[in-house]
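All the exercises in this workshop are built on plain-text protein records. The record below serves as our worked example for the rest of this section.
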Amino acid sequence: MNETCARRGRLLVWLAVTALIAVSCGGSDSSGPEVASSTESESASSSEIEPTSDATTTSTEAPSTSTTAAETSTTAPEPVEQPNAERILTDGHSTLDAALALELPVAGTLGYSDRASVPDYLPDSAASVEEVGNRGDINFEVIAAFAPDAIVANAFSLDSIGLREPAEELARVVAVETSTFVPWQTALRQLGEGFGVPQRAEDRIAEAEALFAELRESLTDAQRALEVSVIRCAFGQCRYLPGGSSFPGMVLDDVGIARPEIQRSDPEGRPFVEVSFEQIDLLTGDVIVLFGTDAESELEQLQGSALWDLIPAVQNDLVFTVDGDAWFSGNVLAAEYVARDIAEILASVPG
């Protein structure tokens, strides 16, 4: 019996014990603070949840207390090659983004109930990726039938809500930190290490940084000086996404985009800060970027507010809606998309 079959056999026993754990994950379809709906807290769940301190090891064995001559040798151990993977399953947008960017053989990804499992901003190579079950109701039998040989998942999901052990019964697990307040470069490097291609990850980061510099230089001084407010509003609440601790905020920082003073950083390191419609003036900037799962609908709600019409950016027709999937969270591909987006927006402003 090969290792994959053995893992599936062990899983059938495990499922009886872990059924309640899988059900407990059913209240959220996302993995990070940046994914929000009318009923969910953005800090509770997407390929972006709370981070853990280390996300690249999957071993849970305690070290042996016995000592041998070989173990006391001062000779450095031989580096261990990561086994090749041919059928990778990712747990959402951020891990899918990173795996595709590193040209890993992604075969499937967990789906979402409120948005596409494979977002439009991803390259054509994503077209063959299959949706395997749903993030909000993780079904390990469905995953077992899909037969991945490696699973890439959010470290918090694996360790905090008890998913690591049943996942490891199915395939090798590579855990990465995809929380929105962790720089996207961290997860890309972890993924590169996990699949034995660390230099490929460094090369992609360097390519992105070169793009950011090119886009920054393409703008005039006046356009670079425009303060960009990044917001999301729905169901009577608005939030802005600050620099330094949110995915879009960090990307705009990397490109060198100016932000309103209140949005440049958050002293508590939050990935978003909520304000009421009565405080809508706190969301102002020279330019407003609005995103969400349905940004046009959210904009219509705002246009019904008298306070909204008092904002200079609104009066100057400098409010722009953008792709919510790319701006919510992601990795290097989303970061490059956001950078191009904001450069195009600012280039459209005379100056």
Remarks:
- Confidence is low (pLDDT under 50) at residues 1-6, 8-80.
